[in-house]
Write a structure and sequence with these properties.
Strand content: 5-15%
Structural class: alpha+beta
Helix content: 55-70%
Distance between the termini: 34 Å
Largest sheet: 5 strands, antiparallel
Number of strands: 11
Number of helices: 24
Shape: elongated
Length: 741
């Protein structure tokens, strides 16, 4: 592989015009496709194979035209102080609003508060339910505008009016913090390279790669039903890995220049060595992201594949466009150790050869030497520290965000609070019980029995009368819990109703199914929990095999996997502490604590594993390279840190800056993922890879690189450390000696 990538790097360097034109044309093509495509809608949480989804399917079949998965809205009215919603003036305003809402062509029904039980017991709060014929993804802007205009008219009449439901869900905004993250990355790159031009190359190539990826996602959003969150997560991950991959290749290029190589040859060797590590690091990220499809939740599958596509583009750009831009830069990208004149450079850094003394160890080499001398102490400190950070993860509670987790500045959150005030917290998460009595001799008796059984359960405020369909063989029963939608008590109630339904089915043969947004969220969380262990086995297993091929070792990949588990558990602990317990919640902009998003653990496992293996590959391949070239295990650890620690540190800081930028998002899911990934990179890069990894390798010695002989013969030789390139140089040197002789 190193030889092939070496040739690819030289080709891109020589044919820089063709290479650059290809990527710019691809960016333009994707941009044109995105500009002409419909805007992305909201992501659906529907999941095949669950009871909630089965109930939706029954409703679609037995209640045609009701649009069970259609968008919904609740227009909540509150009377001024000292008045009631039953007062003549207030009642007239509400009735006018209901009439306005009914005029929209996409509206399926509007429930009048005064006829459908939408009035609170004290008369201060009322609400009108609005159902749409289409899902939130298909809802037109004109329908949203009509909804907001009707509410505004009622406000002008003196009422407090807020709108809840999914009809007004907007595209999440990330704010200026994302730009700040990129700015921090730029500063880190300038400090790392000592050159504005060298620092600009990784940023430019990463932005082009993310631009192609996100534009493609936008172009396909309507066709593939990709939610707006998909492009945000692709941007988050694509920016981070794109900058890092280019950073490693530019850094290796400058090192090759410092060793006296010609620029074209240096570019080829940078791609052949660091590029090999980029390929395998990118493969681990892609495996982890594509592996999310095993969960069998369409939304998560699409997010994973879209982000994996952006990572694949980042790898290809790092291997081709980076050497092409290095060709354009010429002598303006200086060898390692030199700074640009603008930053006070201009003189080459003295090496040990020039001074006649040993080269002074840099900070990475000094740190590695310290760890090698005291491996047990460093290992214990790192493991105990991460273990302490992981303690809150033992209290992890999972759920999916609803309007109650929105910022208090949003109308959805204010509507949620008004409904809780007027009707109780459970009113925001009604349960829809579908009674399928098609195979029963007396459906009406079954409907009555189901209602009576549910009324006998604890934790319920009201059970509405059964509403049968036209055929009279299926009915819906609306149940209002006495607890809020995301609480454990509501989850227990859903399970109790399903248990009661199992008994009824055994008696009369009718299916009792629980659905609604709250039941869907519970089923999503359960499915994600059930899929976590199989997903871990699949992703870690495949990456473990890949790392055996890369490092030609059993213990090094095993150590990498165990270190990852430590860092991801510690990161989950930090997420629980902030988003569930409320520690530092004000600093992070978390206005409402509650259960951790149910897809967070499995998403973090996938993404963090891929990113953790990035640092493992970049750092340890340098150590293996030194070991293969004759250094003893301890010296190899120090050598690996001498050449890689500074760059890995810069890469980690850049990733943290990019991920932290998304903490400013208005979307709770994006905010939580941004924080979780930033903390995970902090733990993995600076505790696991920089402390635990060298300590373990120092303790293992030569055993770290042990591989059974039979396995060594079977495995393909991918030559990540570039031994094939060294052999080529040796042959060229021998040829030159023969010519001179």
């Amino acid at each position: 592989m190193a030889t092939f990538l070496y040739r690819l790097g030289r080709f891109a360097f020589r044919r820089r015009h063709f290479t650059a034109l290809f990527w710019v044309a691809l960016l333009a093509l994707a941009g044109v496709g995105a500009a002409g495509a419909p805007a992305a809608g909201n992501t659906s949480f529907s999941i095949p194979g669950t009871e909630a989804q089965k109930a939706f399917d029954v409703l679609e079949e037995r209640f045609p035209g009701t649009s069970a998965d259609g968008a919904t809205a609740r227009v909540v009215f509150k009377a001024p102080a000292g008045e009631k919603m039953t007062d003549a003036g207030n009642k007239a305003t509400v009735e006018k609003t209901v009439k306005e809402l009914s005029g929209d062509s996409q509206v399926a029904f509007v429930a009048d508060p005064y006829q459908g039980g939408g009035l609170s017991q004290d008369g201060a709060v009322a609400y009108a339910s609005v159902g749409y014929k289409v899902s939130g993804m298909e809802l037109e802007d004109s329908s949203r505008d009509s909804l907001e205009a009707a509410a505004e008219d009622a406000r002008d009449a003196g009422l407090t009016v807020e709108i809840g439901g999914d009809a007004l869900q907007a595209v999440p905004a990330t704010g200026t913090a994302e730009v700040i993250g990129i700015g921090v990355a730029a500063v880190v790159l300038v400090i790392t390279f000592g050159s504005l031009l060298a620092a600009g190359l990784p940023l430019l190539t990463a932005i082009i790669g993310v631009g192609i990826g996100v534009a493609t996602i936008t172009a396909l959003a309507s066709t593939l039903e990709l939610g707006s969150t998909t492009s945000i997560l692709a941007t988050m991950i694509g920016l981070a890995v794109g900058i890092d991959y280019a950073l490693f290749i530019v850094s290796r290029y400058r090192t090759e220049l410092a060793e006296g190589r010609e620029r074209e040859d240096a570019a080829g060797r940078a791609v052949g060595t660091a590029g090999s590590a980029v390929v395998f690091a990118g493969l681990t990220v892609v495996i982890a992201l594509v592996g999310l499809s095993v969960v069998n939740i369409p939304m998560l599958t699409k997010m994973g594949i879209a982000a994996a596509g952006t990572v694949a583009i980042a790898v290809l750009i790092a291997l081709t466009m980076v050497p092409a831009l290095l060709g354009y830069a010429g002598g303006k990208v200086r060898p390692a150790g030199e700074k640009s004149k603008l930053l006070g450079g201009g003189r080459a850094k003295k090496t040990g050869t020039e001074t006649g003394t040993a080269q002074r160890p840099n900070m990475g080499a000094r740190w590695a030497s310290f760890v090698v001398r005291r491996p047990v102490a460093v290992l214990l400190l790192g493991v105990v520290g991460l273990g302490a950070a992981a303690v809150p993860a033992g209290s992890l509670e999972l759920g999916l965000p609803d309007d109650g987790s929105q910022p208090t500045s949003t109308t959805q959150r204010r509507a949620y609070d008004l409904l809780s005030e007027g009707f109780g917290p459970g009113f925001n998460g009604p349960l829809v019980v579908v009674v399928d009595a098609k195979n029963s001799d007396d459906p009406q008796a079954v409907f009555q029995q189901a209602g009576d059984e549910i009324k006998g359960l604890d934790g319920i405020v009201t059970v509405a009368p059964a509403q049968p369909n036209e055929a009279g063989d299926t009915a819906t029963i609306t149940v209002i819990p006495d607890s809020k939608p995301s609480s454990a008590a509501t989850e227990d109630l859903v399970h109790d109703i399903r248990d009661a339904g199992t008994d009824i089915k055994a008696d009369v043969g009718a299916d009792i199914l629980v659905t609604g947004a709250t039941a869907v969220n519970i089923d999503v969380s359960q499915k994600l929990n059930d899929a976590l262990v199989p997903y871990l086995i699949l992703v870690v297993g495949l990456a473990f095999l890949l790392l055996i091929v890369v490092f030609r070792s059993i213990l090094v990949p095993l150590k990498a996997a165990l270190g990852f588990l430590l860092s991801v558990m510690a990161a989950l602990g930090a997420v629980v502490a902030v988003f569930q317990w409320g520690w530092l919640s004000g600093l992070m902009g978390v206005e409402e604590t509650g259960p951790v998003m149910s897809m967070m653990p499995i998403f973090m496992v996938g993404v963090v594993f891929g990113l953790a293996m990035d640092y493992e590959v970049f750092l340890v391949t340098r150590m293996r390279e030194a070991f293969v070239h004759g250094e003893n295990p301890s010296q190899a650890v120090v050598t690996g840190f001498r050449y890689s620690a500074r760059v890995v540190t810069a890469a980690a800081v850049i990733m943290m800056a990019v991920f932290s930028g998304f903490i400013g998002s208005s979307e709770a899911m994006v905010k939580m993922i941004g924080f979780g990934l930033a903390v995970a990179v902090l733990f993995d890069a600076f505790v696991v890879r920089m402390a635990i990894v060298p300590a373990v390798l120092a303790l293992l010695g030569k055993k770290a690189w042990w591989l059974p002989k039979w396995l060594d013969r079977v495995l393909p030789n991918v030559d990540v450390e570039g031994e094939g390139l060294r052999t080529q140089d040796d042959r060229k040197g021998e040829d030159r000696e023969l010519v001179h002789a």
